[in-house]
Design brief:
By secondary structure, the protein is α+β, with helices and mostly antiparallel strands. Strands 15-12-14-13-17-18-16 form a 7-stranded antiparallel β-sheet, sandwiched between helices. Strands 5-6-10-8-9 form a 5-stranded antiparallel β-sheet. The structure holds flavin-adenine dinucleotide.
């Protein structure tokens, strides 16, 4: 690869002067994500500013079969943007234009480097927002990374995940071909849903250079609060009941007692250390009052007791620290995580199974997540000696989720951490995925070594 790489870098330096780097600090920054997975340095980092730049870089890489890994903020948790085969990291974080806001269609066109929270600040004067907030990473995660990981978040119960909000995309395939996928319609019956393949493809099929997103109107009123439970299974049961009874909740987040204890230690939030649900409802003043009452009735019926959030705190400014608060308990330990998704009715069974796995293996498992959409994160802190046991517990949790009709990844993607489960979850359908990859990226240069 070296001769081809040197020739490519020489061509790139001509093409994008000052936007190609081989500096050790830049290579180190592009070598990892927010997970504890091993870092891998690329040979160079390139910062495109336009679709034309991306086309030019991909064509050069394709001609020489140089690996090319797109990157947003690098906030992934499964090693998704780690350039395990070296080559070029295509850092899209400088493509930050909000190209057009169309309030009449509830849509926005953006470049992939726009940061989630910055987009919502820009949409606020229009009375609009982009709902699938990735919570703890909302201040850094880029739209390109969210689309590539099919991210979701606290409001996905009411509004859906990222895939539900992507209407169209301009993309560059692995051969450097420029394509427009999708259209501006909410519903269409025209041809294969190639856009749907792009969402969640973790930069392995094509590089997105422009995205058309569907937005939601900002609610006139909202109310949030917390409920604590005697045990985690009761909290899971309450969540399943809220959804089963069709209560119009915008967010239902679950935190187990260990996670709350970690949050208290991290931020001195002074929360009661019991399993809890954090709820939010959206609508008109009257609609919110009605939905809150209905939600409270259901939750109290399953043993939930309301608690008051710390004075002046928004629930999500506490919840967003969950991942960091757990990691901070033992800063030198690695975080072994499972990002499970299951059908909502199976939530109590999975929570009970996680408790059994923790007991059997004498491990501390922290459980929390977007329970209202059936997503549960299980985090275990482990040093080198503890790691095999922690990974065996993760395998057991994934097996339990799959047996319940679930998935090994609710929202973080397959990346490096979950790819070991691809065949277990998808069976021979993995072959079809590989065939799709070969069509988009015949030389396999785009983010190689990921997903399966
Ligand atoms: C504290 C914390 C909390 C989090 N909470 C959530 C959460 O609630 N929900 C959730 O879903 N995730 C969450 N995450 C994970 C992560 O923040 C999201 O997956 C996020 O969307 C990643 O965006 P990014 O810009 O950092 O992408 P990166 O990590 O840089 O990249 C992600 C993937 O996208 C690809 N990619 C990037 N740009 C492009 C492009 N232009 N075209 C094609 N592919 C591209 C990369 O190759 C990679 O495979 C959390 C992470 C942290 C650290």
């Amino acid at each position: 690869m070296t001769a081809g790489l040197d020739a490519m870098l020489a061509a790139l330096e001509q093409l994008l002067p000052d936007r190609v780097s081989r500096r050790p600090a830049d290579l180190a920054a592009a070598a990892h994500d927010a997970s504890s997975l091993p870092a891998a340095r690329p040979d160079a980092v390139v910062w495109p500013l336009s679709t034309d730049d991306v086309v030019a870089v991909v064509r050069l890489a394709s001609e020489r079969a140089i690996p090319l890994t797109a990157r947003g903020a690098g906030s992934s948790l499964e090693g998704n943007p780690i350039p395990v085969r070296g080559g070029i990291v295509l850092d899209c974080s400088r493509m930050t234009r909000v190209i057009a806001v169309r309030p009449e269609d509830l849509q926005v066109d953006v470049e992939p480097g726009v940061v989630y929270a910055a987009l919502n600040r820009e949409l606020r004067p229009h009375g609009l927002f982009f709902p699938p907030s990735p919570g703890g990473s909302a201040d850094v995660a880029t739209i390109g990374g969210m689309v590539a990981n099919n991210a979701s978040g606290i409001y996905s119960v009411k509004y859906g995940g990222t895939r539900d909000h992507v209407r169209a995309a301009t993309v560059v395939t692995g051969t450097g071909e420029l394509l427009r996928l999708g259209n501006r319609c909410r519903k269409s019956a025209s041809g294969y849903h190639l856009l749907g393949l792009l969402v969640g493809s973790e930069g392995t099929l094509a590089i997105a250079t422009e995205l058309t997103l569907a937005l939601a109107g900002r609610p006139a009123a909202r109310r949030q609060g917390g409920f604590r439970f005697a045990d985690a299974t009761a909290a899971a049961r309450a969540t399943a009941e809220l959804i089963r009874f069709g209560i119009d909740v915008a967010a239902v987040e679950f935190l187990d007692d260990r996670t709350i204890a970690a949050l208290n230690r991290f931020g001195a939030f002074d929360l009661v250390e019991a399993p809890a649900l954090l709820l939010e409802v959206h609508g008109s003043e009257a609609g919110v009052a009605e939905a809150w009452q209905a939600a409270e009735d259901v939750v109290r019926g399953t043993g939930g007791v309301p608690f008051v959030l710390p004075e002046g705190r928004d629930a999500w400014t506490i919840r967003e620290h969950a991942t960091r608060a757990i990691a901070a308990l033992r800063p030198t330990a690695a975080t072994v995580r499972a990002d499970l998704a299951i059908p909502i009715g199976a939530l109590p069974t999975l929570v009970a199974r996680a408790a059994a796995i923790a007991r059997e293996r004498a491990l501390a498992i922290h459980l929390f997540g977007h329970a209202g959409i059936g997503i549960l994160h299980a985090l275990v802190l482990a040093d080198d000696a503890e790691r095999p046991a922690a990974e065996a517990a993760r395998d057991a949790l994934v097996d339990a989720a799959l047996a319940l009709g679930g998935s090994c990844s609710g929202e973080h993607g397959m990346g490096l951490g979950n790819r070991r489960y691809a065949a277990r979850e998808h069976g021979s359908a993995v072959r079809l995925m590989q065939g799709v990859k070969a069509l988009f990226d015949p030389r396999s240069i785009l983010n190689p070594g990921k997903i399966w």
